[in-house]
Specification:
By secondary structure, the chain is of the alpha/beta class. The chain is globular and about 55 Å long.
Length: 362
Amino acid sequence: MSGRVPEPTPEVARLKPYTVPAAGRRGLLRLDFNENCVGPSPRVLEALRRLTAEEIASYPDETAARAAVAQRFGLGPAIDLVLTSGVDEGIRLVCDCFVRAGERVVLLDPGYPMYRFYATLCGSELRAVEVGPDLAFPGPAVRAAVAEGSRLLILGDPHNPTGAPVPAGFIEAMAAAHPGTVILADEAYAEFAGPTSIGLLDRFPNLVVARTFSKAYGLAGLRAGVLIGRRETLSWIARMRSPYAVNSAALAALIAALEDELYVDRYVAEVRAARRRLADGLAGIGVPTYPSVANFVIARFGDRAPAVRAALRRRGVLVRDRSDHPILAGTLRIGVGTEAQADACLTAVALALAEVGGGGRA
């Protein structure tokens, strides 16, 4: 071999790769990635079967999907949207569009790794605000960090991996107090929580809301998300994004999913009931959890966490070990699906605890 291997940019060199164990998950109880555990509406599968050769051979047309999303969220004339290949692309677009090298990005730690990933790629200065030991939202610390000067504030509402919501009124107050700071409200789990910041967009051009159709709508494998904000704000993002970011199959599936809101409403209601069932059941066998309004809970197993995770996998139940952060040491993140799936998970956890020993309290 001759020549030199090209050197990456300094930003790429600083990145820690985000890898996920995606192989070998089919057919198991998938409670590790916060996915929809029953699949999308049957209308989605019907729409995919109806795709024609011409539709697949043609570049995607977003017209109908944009109209369906705008109707779903009740967007007024001053509000626009940008469809994205999952919410991850939306995060990157916001970072690349509005953050210059050396400008500060404020985010929570621990948090969704892609926030840090894309903020690093655009050359920003990261300001990570740690959640408290009780995993509650650190409002005063976030206010102080933004007041020091920041170009972008990224807030998961509710937050991943804790499941905690942003307190009512917090995003509105921050958008009003810091008009020079772009605020990205990532509402990937908003269907399970209830509140949304979309109603604030008319008043705050520095606020952008990201939504995904991977969770409640069950389209994770197709990658469909959206950024929503004031038209003049999103015009900059629309200028720089790929015109074919969302493929034709995803667009057809998205339209069909939005036509069956009753299906989504039923699934969300089931998840909320199962979330309480799972938390209560874990408490009953001595495993404490933290309050969550998302479709997952953080459960503390202590030193047994890795062994419990492995024992659960042997029983066909996948959960996520979140011990990579000191605050989350000894915890597993457990996704929530149906009540029957919560019961199956609880049975598997009880058996896993018996296998690894220790029983009782974490």
